[in-house]
Amino acid sequence: MKIRKLSALSKEELSAILDRGGGVSEKVKTGVAEILREVKKRGEVAVLEFTQKLDGVDLSALEVSAAELSAVDENSAEFGFLREAARNIEKFHANQLENIRSEKKVSPADGIEIWREWRPIQKVGIYAPGGLAIYPSSVLMQAIPAKIAGCEEIILATPAFAGTGSPNFAGAGSPNSAGEISTAVIAAAKISGVTKIIKCGGAQAIGALYYVYNVQKITGPGNPWVTEAKKQLSDKVAIDMPAGPSEILILADDTAVPKFVAADLLSQAEHAASSKSILATTSEKLAGEVEAEIEKQISELKRDVILKEAWRLGGEILIAKNLGEAIDFTNEYAPEHLEICVENPESILPKIVNAGSVFLGNFASEPAGDFATGANHVLPTAGFAKNFSPLSVESFGKKIQIQKISKKGLSAIRGVCEKFGEAEGLDAHARSVAIRFEDEE
Amino acid sequence: MKIRKLSALSKEELSAILDRGGGVSEKVKTGVAEILREVKKRGEVAVLEFTQKLDGVDLSALEVSAAELSAVDENSAEFGFLREAARNIEKFHANQLENIRSEKKVSPADGIEIWREWRPIQKVGIYAPGGLAIYPSSVLMQAIPAKIAGCEEIILATPAFAGTGSPNFAGAGSPNSAGEISTAVIAAAKISGVTKIIKCGGAQAIGALYYVYNVQKITGPGNPWVTEAKKQLSDKVAIDMPAGPSEILILADDTAVPKFVAADLLSQAEHAASSKSILATTSEKLAGEVEAEIEKQISELKRDVILKEAWRLGGEILIAKNLGEAIDFTNEYAPEHLEICVENPESILPKIVNAGSVFLGNFASEPAGDFATGANHVLPTAGFAKNFSPLSVESFGKKIQIQKISKKGLSAIRGVCEKFGEAEGLDAHARSVAIRFEDEE
Fold first, then answer.
1. Which amino acids of B are annotated catalytic?
2. Which residue in the set A302, A375, A430 is minimally distant from B114, CB to CB?
3. Which of A176, B208, B212, B258 has its CA 20 to 30 A from that of A112?
4. Phi, psi (5° rounding) for residue A281?
5. Distance separating alpha carbons of residues B266 and B243, to the nearest angstrom
6. Contact: A133, B425; criterion CB under 8 Å
7. How far is the alpha carbon of B44 from chain A, nearest alpha carbon, in Å?
8. For B358, which of A307, A400, A425 is closest by C-beta distance?
9. Contact A425/B266, CB-based, under 8 Å?
10. pLDDT tens-digit profile of B286-309?
11. Are B341 and B252 in contact (CB under 8 A)?
């Protein structure tokens, strides 16, 4: 029985649900530091060695060759679903850039104009995980915003894994020990404007992106080794956000449909045994029906081993006294994915403060957002929805500030500048303003 | 003689100018790790101990008391300059929020609407350095965007230093060993909506913000200990960007005014001996005149000891063959502050890809942006203008994604979702979409 009352949870039980970041083991920390040290020192050679040693993949070259690229026809019927998803992703993210570019100028005084202009990051590295599944969708979700942002080089790192990581591994065109990567991933890369693909994963891939390919930002989800490598390099290269296991929280009342709710909880659970799936509901009836549905549906799905384990470890059905209590818990949890399956879901949206991607209504199935609506699926996990945004066009560029000041404009703020210079003990600051008026005095 | 030709620099000489990040010593890394460990374990007590041991400041309590706050009248004439600067900062940053909120909805298909909504980070920590000077301006530059963003709690950490760090220390109302902080800093905090002030600096302040006050993001410049502490906590709390010494690059042709250029180079040099001041110019005549002006002006300024050292270590006058060469160098350098003092400065702005804050024209003195135009002065340094934006309203919140999908909308993208589920070997994903149509089939 998974069902518990929210109000009956002890402080420790609540913490066990909320504190899902985990932290990184010393083994991972020192392992990552060693990998990065070697990649810094020996470059591509070290990346190939670690790929052989850790992933069992023997590569003759790191980069996907021109021949491998041209062997995949991204315009074939087989990849129509990638192109269709790409169109929606483009639409959503192009709208972001349009908004960024529409920011107005501000004039704090006559003769002063200040504004921001968009500039792309020139060279970015994106990571698409492998091992338990392949993720052409994650290629689209990163490369398309990067292309729209205007990045000149978009380098994709993705592992050519042996594909034996999971008892439920079932990726079509799964990567293999011969060093091939999925044709769907190559097609996604070609559709979305990736300029180079390197066949490696883990900490060595992050090291390669920075030390071998000199990218200026690295984005993308990954396992703890990938996340730790990004952190260790984060005083040298920009990163998107820390990453943890995938998670979904469904906020539901008795208008929710039990089998939809169960299916959506399982859709996130299938990523890995560490995934989290939580139902917070005001309806005891729904709680019971969802629990029964989950047992039933697991047995019908291919990745049943992962699903059972993920539901055992990270599944929760929590009964709230009322919607207010459920919303408070949701904001405290700050889920990566939040489905709101209540009567009039839009009415409670303003009360949702912390969430990555929100799905409104009984037909807003979370996987629709993973793949097809066009919204981004690279999202903050592990509670980081409190302080990070979903990946977006903004992730791939920066806004430079511009200040245009005439003599008249400077004279309007001269007094303030000189007072600050005095207050902060910085007379060269004050002088640089005053010197422009000296000849007149 | 500082003057060199850009094209004559060896690869090593160029690297010595460009690679100014420096990296952190093992001593700082382990020192910071120890401080954070202790603050995590023993909380405020450890923060007070380190403040005594490292800064020589003996505090009875970490927080500025209600009595200390009410002793400062932020509406007095004395602080008029702070209120005037605050008005401009508010104007510039309110415009950012207005722009964020004006992003349109996107509809990739009938029955699907996706959009982003702004949500503030609830609890943020801001850091204003001390030691060599006091920075009420940095309080305004962080707290005002945070307030506009909608943050509920804004906690300021700033050291109550003994004020003996520099031979040129000249901060009016400088903080002292009795544990008082500058009245100007308190006034700035009150004007800008800070909800609490804690009197500590260095790594222990960053530790206090996270472990004692549980903030969700930490922003603000600081010395290498502060920056390293932010990095070490960056898998637990969001941070703004890595920070290095302040820097200015002035791009000038023969229309620039030598004494203005010299004064502006020195305005950044006075921050610390590690500051960088670079002139890149197409005019040999200007180069010579600026060098002479610098010698002259240094002797007239209070912080002459810092200035001499900063100019000796980090001053450069570089002659470019033409404007194109100077612009390429500028983009490679990616300066925190960039002044463009050429004929028609706006015309070359589109070619500037990497810079934090750009100043156009001979009267756009950089310190005007430090204090008074309203643009932000917390900027990427050490080359991070390649991949980071200036601090802004965006730094203090996030955009959550919302997806509203009707049955009709889901049916429009159902095929794509199912194909992805198949391609990625994720049948629970495909099922969660399919199950919503099962009863009809």
1. 336-337
2. A375
3. B258
4. -140, 150
5. 20
6. yes
7. 23
8. A400
9. no
10. 999 999 999 999 999 988 999 999
11. yes
Q: Contact, A286 vs A254, CB < 8 A?
A: yes
- B-chain CB neighbours of A422 within 8 Å are 172
Task: Determine the number of helices (DSSP H) and then strands (DSSP E) in chain B.
Answer: 16, 14
B150 touches chain A (CB under 8 A): no
Nearest residue to B226 (alpha-carbon basis) of B19, B36, B21? B36
Chain B residues lying within 8 Å of A81, measured CB to CB: 415-416, 419-420, 423
Q: Kindly state the average pLDDT of the residues A163-184.
A: 54
A357-381 burial: b if 16+ Cβ within 10 Å, else e: bbbbbbbbbbbbbbbbbbbbbbbbb
* Residue B150 falls in which region: left (phi positive, over 0), alpha (psi -120 to 50) or beta: left
Domains, chain A, with CATH or none: 3-21+245-374 (3.40.50.1980), 26-239 (3.40.50.1980), 406-440 (no CATH)
Q: Which residue has the tokens 């600067």?
A: B85
d(CA A408, CA A239): 42
CA distances from A309 to A247, A282, A303, B375 (A): 14, 26, 10, 52
Task: Tell me the mean pLDDT in the region B153-176.
Answer: 59
**Chain B residues with CB inside 8 Å of A424's CB?**
133-137, 171
* A205 closest CA partner among A88, A349, A59, A84: A59
A296 touches chain B (CB under 8 A): no
**Interface pTM (ipTM) of the complex?**
0.94
- List CB contacts of B58: < 8 A, sequence separation 6 or more: B52, B177, B178, B179
**β-sheet bridge partners, residue B197:** B156
Q: Rounded to two decimals, what is the model's pTM?
A: 0.95
Q: Kindly report, residue by residue over A46-66, the tens digit of the pLDDT.
A: 999 999 888 888 888 999 999
